[in-house]
Input
Amino acid sequence: MLNRLIYVIEGVILCISVNSLVHSLIDIAVGKALGFELWSFKYLFFDMSTVNHEKKYSIGKFSVYCQHFLSKPDLTKEKEHKNVYATLILTTLADIGLLVAGIHFMRICTDAGKQTLYALLGGIVGYLAAFVVAQWFITIKFMITEEKHLLFYCRMMAQQWVKGMPTEELSLPPYKELGLIAQDAELVQYDSMRFLQKVWMERYEELDEIVREFEPLVEKSDSGYGYIHSFTPAYYNLIFYYSFVKRSDLKARHFYDVISKDLENDTDTNGRRVLAYYHYFVNHDARKAHALIREAWHVMPKFSNCQAERDYEAKLLDILAKVMERDEEQIGNPFDKNTVTAL
Output
């Protein structure tokens, strides 16, 4: 009985992995047809990311769940809904096809010699049946209540930011004051925006409250089989926070270890900047930090279509450069790993 249960669980895990790949491929195909651009794709050890508007392929941290990110063109709400429903219908048809195939093979695996395969298929069929129902229920419920969700508000603020609204003028109060529905992923995304705004305004003392809110959600999402790729900005913020603001080497190293492969492969300005802070304040490696700052500035002209985001990165690079210059003047050799001082 226990062995059969184990095979059922294995069937569910296998189905989640393959099913996520199928859904991602369908979503990408529909998105591309509507003018979306694929910015990142991660499955198992394969990792594709867009760096300086160029596709980069690498071996990243293992992820059993397929994850991808599509940049959204300036779509009307009607077109965006059509994209969601088209993807939902196609993925449901794919799921039903797999479900029918699974039931068919279960029927021919009823004899005693094939009980292992029967249990494995049982896990697959059970997961697919539950997933199809849940997917329709959750999607339709979200579409009906879309404007009541924190994610909808995040998108509005992001659009205003990209269109030129000054970072300090974005309306980003604590989410509870908005009275909106907030799932974990939505809250992490919103708090990442609030974090960026507070850093831009140099109100570092207000970061503690934001970090206390989203850090447990990020920690909870790390299953040990790969982190949620859309949480990358949150991980970057936590590494920066514990390297520079709160000064906890233990915490900074913890979050670095989770995403180290992907962060080291990120040659965009923000990835180089986060690494520069980490190596200077945690590893006390001024030489490495100097090199990373140069790399960050080198790719800055190609980094992001949003001027405010480039200004944000430029400001943080300038702050680190000034701290390093001050340390060099006060203690001499900036390349001695034992000479980095506190602010």
About this structure: The radius of gyration is 23 Å.
